[in-house]
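Sequence decides. Our protein:
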Amino acid sequence: MTEQATTQSSLWHNFFRQRTEEDNSLESLLSRVQIFSQLTNRELRKVSSIVHRREYAANEYVFSQGDPGLGMYVIEDGEVSIIYSDEASIEKELTLLKAGDFFGELSLLDESPRSASAIAKAPSRIIGFFRPDLIDLLNRSPKSGTKILFKLGEVIGTRLRITNEQLGKLERRTGKESEK
């Protein structure tokens, strides 16, 4: 059973994305993803040569909760739903991501199991950037790899601060309810 979130979670929303009418080249798309935003055009060309493009059918899993984390994904076109399943197998949609959004970036740092599933909700074109690609880039071009790692840290830090704020609000709300 899927319980759809009533509001978009700012944890998953790509709050860095800027909507522009730029061309749809891969380098242009990657330059608008926060993790790659500090790369030069030459560095973006390098990254675009090592990413993996794939098409997903509607309702096809990009990855499942519990799978090993292999890398991050950028939605080129389409929609992806992030679904969490609890111990009772009750599913909850955490968010619906659209073109330009990215997800799974934490697995660039570690290979821990996925904490949720990602499912294409419509036919989608998705770009994969995997941990071995990042490690290879760090070895071949430390400056480029370091730029990506610093931006990755910034994204994770921002999402952690937002999580802390949301948990604080929830705690205050539940604390008030239990006082009644």
The two ends are 32 Å apart (CA to CA). DSSP finds four helices and nine strands in the chain. Residues 4 and 27 are 33 Å apart (CA to CA). The first helix runs from residue 26 to 31.
